[in-house]
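Lecture notes, continued. The same structure-token format from the folding unit now serves as the input rather than the output. Read the line below as a description of shape only.
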């Protein structure tokens, strides 16, 4: 089922759909109207309107933690990706998403030094799990070793939601992940009977500067952010469909 979902997501990728439409135009030669449809679709996915709307729809569902609850003593930080770069420092092998999520966990710990950090994330055959590299980076902030745990076996959000239950059990905890990913992460945790409190971070800042043309003029980066948001929306749809068939 997971492999089918990945194939389906690849086929529904906005850029891949554009390529299919162009291939169709080469074979069928649909005329001006068909080419106009392709042109409008390319504008839709490459300007910032749709990408920004979908991204903000996901990111605005939860707000950052401003006041911490002293009774909550767990913060679970979900990893956000890594790569393998021999002869490079360990932190250079973590995606910026992973680093931003870890920093939010550190911020929560500083607001309440009684918080226990659980770093979660395995790897796809990499030499070291993402959570292990995040653990090394967490050591830079003088957090007591007794207040950091590592879950390094899970390979996706659904696995993480199941794995962290062994640590937090029925206790409420701050769930730290990227804002765009938070709705799906919260839903998966709640499905496991967990009690997550959203602590979003890593907001999409791309359109929030003086370069207005990023929103109005076509560019490839808009397609990237659209694809990220579409991945989360498809993930939520898949999650709901699985719930209907259980």
């Amino acid at each position: 089922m997971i492999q089918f979902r990945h194939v389906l997501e690849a086929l529904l990728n906005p850029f891949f759909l554009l390529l299919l439409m162009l291939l169709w135009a080469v074979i069928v030669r649909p005329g001006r109207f068909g080419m106009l449809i392709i042109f409008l679709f390319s504008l839709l996915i490459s300007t910032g309107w749709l990408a920004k709307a979908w991204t903000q729809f996901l990111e605005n569902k939860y707000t950052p933690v401003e006041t911490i609850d002293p009774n909550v003593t767990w913060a679970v930080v979900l990893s956000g990706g890594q790569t393998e770069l021999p002869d490079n420092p360990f932190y250079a092998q973590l995606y910026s998403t992973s680093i931003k999520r870890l920093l939010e966990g550190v911020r929560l710990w500083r607001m309440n030094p009684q918080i226990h950090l659980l770093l979660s994330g395995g790897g796809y055959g990499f030499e070291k799990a993402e959570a292990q590299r995040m653990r090394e980076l967490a050591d830079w902030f003088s957090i007591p070793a007794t207040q950091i745990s590592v879950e390094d076996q899970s390979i996706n959000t659904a696995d993480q939601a199941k794995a962290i239950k062994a640590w937090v059990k029925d206790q409420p905890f701050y769930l730290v992940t990227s804002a765009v990913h938070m709705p799906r992460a919260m839903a998966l945790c709640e499905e496991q009977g967990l009690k997550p409190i959203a602590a979003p971070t890593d907001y999409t800042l791309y359109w929030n500067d003086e370069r207005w043309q990023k929103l109005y003029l076509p560019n490839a980066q808009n397609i990237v952010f659209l694809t990220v948001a579409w991945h989360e929306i498809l993930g939520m749809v898949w999650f709901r469909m699985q719930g209907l068939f259980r």
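Point for the exam: The mean pLDDT is 92.
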